[in-house]
Write a structure and sequence with these properties.
alpha/beta; GMP Synthetase, Chain A, domain 3; 7-stranded mixed beta sheet; 21 helices; disordered N terminus; binds 5'-O-[(S)-ethoxy(hydroxy)phosphoryl]adenosine
Length: 670
């Protein structure tokens, strides 16, 4: 394995020149959970200097324990155990604890389905805490009836419907370990994941709606269950039962004895289901995520520490208050959907909104229509979505009253300052703070982020660490680099919601995360700290290029490109170059109505030269109608690198949203 090299000091003018500073609005400084930098700093210091005392107090204040814990942390790198001796139940912390409070009759989930005519709204469902509790208990009994017990693995392969949250919470209630597979993944991915975690049962739906058509989920499960490995052995031989939710009413095949309908099963159970007593370190879920090499890794999260992280970050970062209508647009198939659609908001007794479908169905104003209809106060979405909204034009948000919004969030990739400013002005009306939250599937919860009542923000930086988190930017030897210099982002201290391993592969766990810098967690991201100590994520280190001895962050060049009025989206990759080591290739999608030309190509090269420096000028600019993306919206640079290098596109493309994009990119070269 070649070790990723840290990005050396590079041309950072664009970041260092960022002088716009947005202090917390007065309302936040008055009412937020953390009201000033002074208060943040005091709590942060406490969380580092006496971290066990801090986390111990938080665990007692925030969570309901069935049996109190005895020891805060047992740490033998890379293995952490939090709140040893303690027992609790995640579903009880998200539901039961609210039942004898006024929260019982508050909306826990507000859901809107995708199908809708232009100008119309979709189907709507609201589940109060009491109702959600009942549904979860009943479905937990369905799981038991179908042979699921403590520790068994369950695959959840559902569309964005309330039943996805119900299924997750039902697993947690009986101590089963869920592994949610994004509804856009293929049969092969389902089979691989079943095999890897040896799952016993699959929960799916007949179909789900996406951008106006039906995704045949049950059909994919049927295919997954007969797929074989190279030796001819069935991958999914551990599966005993499939529970099928009726959602899209498309035709499906039911295999007698194996497949059962969700609604029929409910006829056999009642709503009495005690919450299982789970050890703090009992596995809660496995979530598969791509690494830079090899097959997806099953990231393991456990009970007490994960829930504490999800709950506290939701409370402090989104400043959740009683009356908020909170909407995280992530799919339940991603970690953001786990921590910030389901566990974090519900543990806080918040109202969490779920939307089933695409942001541009039936028209590009669907999000804004939803915000106006439900009075959404907090919106948490991804830069890639924001750039799409920019491309579609301001007329769509302008048609709706977005004045209920009070806080905006961003996650998943570095947000370029132009997108940040657009989000701030057009969506936030200039009044909403933006929390740019940096974290990973592996970290379980938000790690670097502004707190909206305390931290002055700057467009493009996730700012400062959350309580108890010690990030550091280091060089290849693991030594801290000076301010403003690029390096590897590592995390020094263990934290409660950290991953506990890669399912079934302790060696890979050690290699991937704990072998770069002794005793520290390696994030895989490049980063630099500015003079205020703010962390600027440059992007994955494997996306950092070396052009003629200059290290250039692809994210930085992309940000420069996107800051040009004509550009909707850009992805930059390296291509081997005899003279310079690597040459920069930019794939650019222009805004609607703008035609590619030599003149625009020259203009963009000059623009990048102006923004960053001549060294960052793309050697090659290729115009594309769309960029290849994973279904979570991440640009697949690995694919672009292969296209840029003119080699055949190889490797795992099962996470690609739309394969035809690659065909078009390649064809454009011919
Ligand atoms: C990137 C998503 C810059 C980063 C929660 C990280 C970000 C990877 C940000 C994890 C952000 C996430 N600014 N980069 N605010 N948030 N990233 O596991 O490269 O899907 O390592 O988790 O996304 O992606 P994952």
């Amino acid at each position: 394995m070649t070790k990723p090299k840290s990005p050396a000091p590079q041309n950072i003018t664009s970041m260092l020149q960022e002088e716009r500073l947005f202090p917390p609005p007065a309302e936040f400084a008055k009412r937020a959970h953390v009201k000033s930098m002074g208060q943040y700093k005091k709590l942060y210091r406490e969380s580092i200097e006496d971290s066990e005392g801090f986390w111990g107090r938080q665990a007692n204040a925030e969570l309901v324990w069935i049996k109190p814990w005895k020891e805060v942390l047992r740490w033998k790198a890379p293995n952490a155990k939090w709140f040893l001796g303690g027992q609790l139940n995640v579903a009880a912390n998200c539901l039961d604890r609210h039942l004898n409070t006024p929260t019982a009759n508050k909306a826990a989930l507000i859901w809107e389905g995708e199908p809708a005519a232009p100008g119309q709204m979709g189907e709507e469902r609201v589940l109060t805490y009491q109702q959600l509790h009942r549904e979860v208990c009943m479905f937990a009994n369905v799981l038991k009836r179908n042979g699921v017990g403590k520790g068994d693995r369950v695959i959840i392969y559902l569309p964005m419907v309330p039943e996805a949250a119900i299924a997750m919470l039902a697993c947690a209630r009986i101590g089963a370990v869920h592994s949610v597979v994004f509804g856009g993944f293929s049969a092969q991915s389902v089979a691989d994941r079943i095999f890897d975690c040896q799952a016993k049962l699959v929960i799916t739906a007949d179909g789900g709606y996406r951008r106006g058509s039906i995704v045949p989920l049950k059909k994919s499960v049927d295919e997954a269950l007969v797929l074989k490995d190279a030796t001819g052995a069935l991958l999914a031989k551990t599966i005993e039962k499939v529970i099928v939710l009726r959602r899209a009413s498309n035709d499906i095949h039911i295999t007698e004895g194996r497949d059962v309908w969700w609604h029929r099963e409910l006829e056999y159970v009642d709503a009495n289901c005690p919450a299982a007593k789970m050890d703090s370190e009992a596995p809660l879920f496995i979530l598969y995520t791509s690494g830079s090499t090899g097959k997806p890794k099953g990231i393991l999260h456990t009970t007490g520490g994960y829930l504490l992280g999800a709950k506290m970050t939701t409370k402090y970062v989104f400043d959740i208050q009683e009356t908020d209508v909170y909407w995280c647009t992530a799919d339940i198939g991603w970690v953001t959907g786990h921590s910030y659609v389901v566990y974090g908001p519900l543990a806080n007794g918040a109202t969490s909104l779920m939307y089933e479908g695409a942001p541009n169905h039936p028209e590009p104003d669907r999000f804004w229509r939803i915000i106006a209809k439900y009075g959404v106060t907090i919106l948490y979405t991804a830069p890639t979505a924001i750039r799409a909204f920019m491309k579609w034009g301001v007329e769509w948000p302008k048609k709706h009253n977005l004045s209920s919004l009070r806080l905006l969030g961003s996650v998943g990739e570095p947000i370029n300052p132009e997108a940040w400013m657009w989000y701030h002005e057009v969506i936030g009306g200039g009044r909403c703070p933006i929390v740019d939250t940096w974290w990973q599937t592996e970290t379980g919860g938000i790690m670097i982020t502004p707190l909206p009542g305390a931290t002055p923000t700057k467009p493009g930086t996730a700012t400062l660490p959350f309580f108890g988190i010690v990030p550091e930017v280091v060089d290849d030897q693991g030594n801290p680099v000076p301010k403003n210099s690029g390096g590897k982002l590592i995390i020094r201290k263990p934290w409660p919601s950290m991953l506990r391993g890669i399912w079934g592969d302790p060696e890979r766990f050690k290699q991937t995360y704990w072998s770069e810098v002794q005793g520290a967690y390696f994030t895989g991201d490049g980063c630099r700290q500015d003079k205020d100590g703010y962390f600027w994520i440059v992007g994955r280190i494997d996306d950092v290029l070396n052009v003629a001895g200059h290290r250039i962050g692809t994210a930085e060049v992309e940000s420069a490109l996107v800051s040009n009025q004509k550009v909707a989206e850009a992805a930059v990759v390296g291509r081997p170059d005899e003279l310079k080591g690597q040459a920069l290739v930019a794939f650019v999608t222009l805004k609607t109505g703008i035609k590619p030309s030599h003149a625009i190509r020259d203009e963009l090269r000059a623009h990048v030269a102006k923004e960053i420096g001549p060294v960052a000028k793309p050697d090659d600019i290729r115009f594309a109608e769309a960029l290849p993306k994973t279904r979570s919206g991440k640009i697949m640079r690995r694919v672009l690198k292969q296209v840029a290098a003119g080699v055949e596109v190889k490797g795992d493309t099962t996470t690609l949203e739309d394969f035809s994009v690659i065909a078009k990119l390649v064809a454009a070269e011919d």
